[in-house]
Amino acid sequence: MKIAMLARNPELYSHKRLVEAANERGHEIDIINTIKCYMNITSHRPELRYRGEKLVGYDAVIPRIGASITYYGLAVLRQFEMMGVYSLNESVAIGRSRDKLRSLQLLARDGIGLPVTAFAHDTGRTDEVIEMVGGAPCVIKLIEGTQGLGVVLGETHRSARSVVEGFRGAKVNILVQEFIKEASSTDIRMLVIGGKVVAAMERKGGEGDFRSNLHRGGSSSRVKITPMERSTAVRACKCLGLNAGGVDILRSNHGPVVMEVNSSPGLEGIEDATNLDIAGKMIEFLEKNAKPGKTKTKGKG
């Protein structure tokens, strides 16, 4: 196969591992800087160019689109889809996962366990919103935040209200969520590929930090998951339409609750924790599924 990987930094562990896995399996893979692509969007024959050359002949595309360039990245990916190139994750699915509010609404619609979550525009309802999620302590998070950035714990009602009003004063959209105290700053990241959980790790927050993100100083280890946790992760990816995704859950007193579904999960932490070849499993999925024109949306939606 000839594979295109949309990524801005070829030196990231995840990107190097995907290139390594593709080469080991006899495939050709090119890393394409997403924001350097340009396209003719009105042509009867969809056209995508990069560094003066037309991008043609690709069998599959692996989108590793950073959150800061989601809008343009999805436009480039849709162009690939319109050209009949199979994507590991389609543009519509990535768009759903990147919109925290939309993804939670879809997960809730399908009956998937979630922490109690509230959303409002009017700061005059801040007290009511905090009470809706069970009062303080509660978690306030930016809808556009990633890797634990823009996530704040409001330990008291007064501090939670100050954070909410501060964010809204800056015209930033936020969610307020129930704080799952019993999780003890620990979550579980499960990697789902092709409707199966292929790896799972437990992540613990750094000293004094309620967030468990490895980028924020957390630690990880292999973990045994329950059938309900496995089912929750698979259903969450299916709900959003992701072929490959990282599902973050907390173990609450009322069962597993999904915190986030990531369409471009990092591979370093989970490969180190589990000693599994996750990059190889992603390439294997493409080998089995990448066929011309098989993309469901073909750039629509």
Write up what this structure looks like.
There is one protein chain. With 301 residues, the protein is an alpha+beta fold. The chain folds into three domains: 2-92 and 285-289, Rossmann fold (3-Layer(aba) Sandwich); 96-113 and 182-277, ATP-grasp fold, B domain (D-amino Acid Aminotransferase, Chain A, domain 1, 2-Layer Sandwich); 117-179, Dna Ligase, domain 1 (2-Layer Sandwich), CATH 3.30.1490. Helices cover 32% and strands 27% of the residues. The protein has helices spanning 13-24, 70-82, 91-98, 100-109, 126-132, 157-169, 227-240, 268-274, 278-289, and strands at 2-6, 28-32, 37-40, 47-50, 53-54, 60-63, 86-87, 117-118, 138-142, 151-154, 174-178, 186-193, 196-204, 219-222, 244-252, 255-262. A five-stranded antiparallel β-sheet has the order 14-13-12-15-16, sandwiched between helices. It has a four-stranded parallel β-sheet with strand order 2-1-6-7, with helices on both faces. A hairpin with a 2-residue loop joins β12 and β13. α1 crosses α9. The longest helix is centred in the last third of the chain and has 14 residues, at 227-240. It is globular, with a radius of gyration of 20 Å. It starts with a strand and ends in a 12-residue tail after the last helix. The model has no long low-confidence stretch (mean pLDDT 91).
